[in-house]
Each structure stands twice: as C-alpha cells, then as structure tokens.
Write a structure and sequence with these properties.
single chain, alpha+beta, Aminopeptidase, Nonspecific Lipid-transfer Protein, Chain A, 3 domains, 8-stranded mixed sheet, 14 helices, GNAT family N-acetyltransferase, transferase, acyltransferase, acyltransferase activity, SCP2_sterol-bd_dom_sf
C-alpha cells in the first residue's frame, strides 16, 4: 500500500504547476505569488508519496481560503473554504484525495473557532461521500435590457439609493467590497478574507485579452456602501444593432439594494442581456419580473456544499428556529470523532447543544445530511422520504428539521 504524507506545500511554484496540470489551464505570466493570492502560504497543502515522483509537481494538492459563513441568526462564523483540490493524472486511484481530505478535516478540527468546511464542487458526485452536504442551490438568471421589476413596497427605499461604477483597478475597490460584503451578507453566503477580494480584483492579461476589466457597481445610501454588483460587459453587434451581454458573478445587498442595482444593470447602454450568476431558489428577482418564464434563462445548479467537522461546535454556532430534543446516530467515516449518538437540544431562545448519549437513536443519518440542513436548506423530511435518513421515532425528522430550517431558503454563495 502506498504511503501518502500530507503537509504544507513548501514549494509554491511546484504547487501552482500541479494545479495547471490538473485543471489543464493556460499558463499565466503573472508571478507565482500573484496567482496564489488569497490562499495563505500556510494554507497550501500537498501530498507526497514514498515512491519516486516527478519533482516538478506534487501527486496532489489542496488549498484553504479563510472564509466566514453567514448562518441563521445573522451571524458570521469562521469557515474553511476548500479549494485548489487536485490529484495529478499520474497518481489517481491511489487514495491521494482521501488522504488529503482526512488531513483537511484534522486541520479544521484543530483550528480554534473553526468547525465547518465548505466548497463548490467541480464534480458533484465526489464530495458527498466525504461528508459534504448540498446546502444551497444556484439559479443563474438572464434578464433582457429594459426588464420591468415590480416591487411597490420597495420603490421608496430603492429610490433613495444611488450607484457608482468603478474599476477593480481603482484604489480601494477590494477593501470596499470586503467591508460591504461583511456588513450585508445574505444567510447561506460566504465572505472572504480581505485578500480574497484582492484576488477578485486581479487583472491578469491572459484573463482580459479582448475583454474589459471587471467593474464594480456600488450601491450607496446616505454616503455609505450598502451593496454592490461585480460586472463585465462583452461587446457584440448584430445587423448593426448593439447586442452586448453583461456577466454579473456577484450581487450583494438587501432586497431594496438588489432592486436598485438590478434596475440599473438592465439599463446599461449597448447591453441587451444581463446574466445574474448568483440567483437562488427564493431570489426576489424572480418575483419582481413575474416568475421564471419572464426571464430569458433560469437554470438550477448545486451551489455551496457544507461539511460539519466539529459537530457540536458547528451546531451551537448557529441560531435555531424552534425547540427540539432529538437523538441522532451520525455516520461519519472521514471524521470519525463525529460518529455515534448525539442528543441535539434547542430551546426557545434559539440556542442549541449537541451532547454524547447512550439513549436510543430517533434518527440515523449520514453527517452530510446535517451539512445540507445547516443553513436552512436540505429538508430532512425529504431525505427520510428519499430513503437517505432513517427515522426510528415517527416525527423526529420533522422536529429536527423545523428547528434547523429558516424562513427563507439560503442564498447562493460566491464562487471560491
């Protein structure tokens, strides 16, 4: 059996070259540390084998973005954003990915204050077996120029908002994005560290070519930033008529702010379509335009996958919607310290505890079911009906689900 050792990647260039091989990307001219911006040096990890390997690449790599996750109760909790995950093509099917994820869970467990890991899955079939649960859905929405958005109850508040268009190259843009996002993050979304917004604002020549630099449309009320949209336009002409498109990967703000921003986005000159990448299941935009069929395109994708690494700490970190007293038997192969029976009790104040118990289990569930439900999505009753959660006490799944669910489905998070 191959001996796999995982630790901090000592060679940044080797780390980056491995990523380029795994993702078969164009090599960039920017310095190595510029390309790795946002992933701290001590959060870049690599797998080594006991057998001889190519000294210019690692058999496997992964990185961690320091993030905050917006959880029920209007709280931001520390979250390890798993990213840059890859196994070199020469070393697949040897247990490298499993070794790296075990190492990741141990690192998270041993990091004070951090109990949760999250990711966006390149291939959704992979991460469920490692305990990640699908916690939210993403519904990219494409709107036509001049789309009418009807929200009479928000018109006055939206009308008090002004907008300011800046370039990501302008001084202070990353700092403004970070501060604004932390202040108004929707439940279920993630907020990066300051360096992550510096990464978002990178203008690497190979990424630009014939494209404009990314721009940010800030929403302002009473002289302060209350939201923003990150955007880029692609110029196009058909029969001498402007037919450009706009890509909006990030839209941040409360409903009135979103309304003001979207109304501005669908009124840009020379742009005929606007794609909002981070629409979500209960996005008010869908209501404002009259439903999904009033848009050009609505597709549904898996968005954020959440993994509870320190189960009792993670459950205590969020607010709960209703009282409950349920014993769960958790199956967790890759973080075995979570496995076994837990008594989950939430009270009317919204506080909850999870404590070890020998009592008979009311529910038998894999740890990914709790990750899926963590920010108010991932209906546990639906999972019982689907045969993915086993109910020993009738009504136990509904009791736990009512305590974990939220009034509104979680928002889609930005990509990382």
């Amino acid at each position: 059996m191959t001996d796999i050792r995982v630790g901090v990647a000592a060679d940044a260039e080797r780390f980056l070259r491995t990523d380029t091989v795994v993702w078969f990307q164009e090599e960039l001219s920017a310095p190595v540390e510029t390309q790795l911006l946002g992933v701290p040096a001590d959060q870049r990890f690599a797998a080594e084998l006991d057998a001889p390997t190519d000294p210019t690449t690692y058999p496997g790599i992964y990185g961690v973005y320091p993030l905050e996750l917006a959880v029920p109760g209007d709280r931001l909790v520390p979250c390890a954003g798993l990213t840059w995950v890859g196994v070199h093509p020469d070393h697949r099917r040897r247990g490298v990915l499993s070794a790296m994820l075990r190492h990741h869970f141990e690192q998270v467990r041993d990091t004070p204050g951090t109990a949760v890991s999250a990711l966006h899955a390149s291939e959704p079939a992979i991460y469920g077996r490692y305990g990640y649960g699908l916690a939210s859905l993403e519904l990219p929405i494409t709107l036509s120029r001049g789309t009418t958005l009807t929200a009479p109850g928000l018109d006055e508040a939206a009308g008090a908002i002004t907008t300011q268009l800046v370039s990501v190259r302008d001084a202070g843009t990353p700092e403004r994005m970070h501060a604004c996002h932390r202040a108004v993050a929707d439940m279920g979304s993630v907020v990066g560290a300051a360096s992550y917004y510096e990464r978002l604002c990178l203008s690497v020549p190979e990424w630009l070519r014939d494209k404009e630099p990314w721009r940010v449309l800030f929403a302002r009320r009473d002289g302060r930033d209350v939201g923003f949209a990150m955007l880029r336009r692609d110029q196009k002409w058909e029969d001498a008529r402007p037919s450009g498109s706009m890509d909006v990967p990030l839209l941040v703000g409360d409903p009135a702010t979103r309304l003001a921003l979207v109304r501005r986005l669908v009124d840009f000159d020379l742009v005929s379509s606007v794609r909002l990448r981070t629409g979500y299941a209960e996005d008010p935009v869908l209501t404002w335009v009259g439903g999904p069929r009033s848009t050009s395109t609505v597709s549904t994708y898996d968005c954020l996958w959440i993994r509870l690494v320190d189960l009792p700490a993670a459950l205590a970190a969020r607010a709960w919607s209703a009282p409950c007293d349920v014993v769960v038997e958790v199956v967790d192969t890759y973080a075995p310290w979570n496995a076994g029976r837990w008594r989950i009790r939430a009270d009317a104040s919204g506080a909850a505890t999870a404590e070890r118990t020998d009592a008979d289990a009311d529910l038998l569930l894999p740890v990914e079911a709790l990750g899926a439900a963590y920010v108010g999505g991932g209906n546990l009753v639906g999972r019982v009906r689907a045969g993915l959660v086993t109910e020993a006490r009738p009504g136990a799944a509904a009791e736990l689900w009512r305590a974990m669910r939220t009034d509104v489905a979680p928002a889609a998070s930005m990509m990382f």
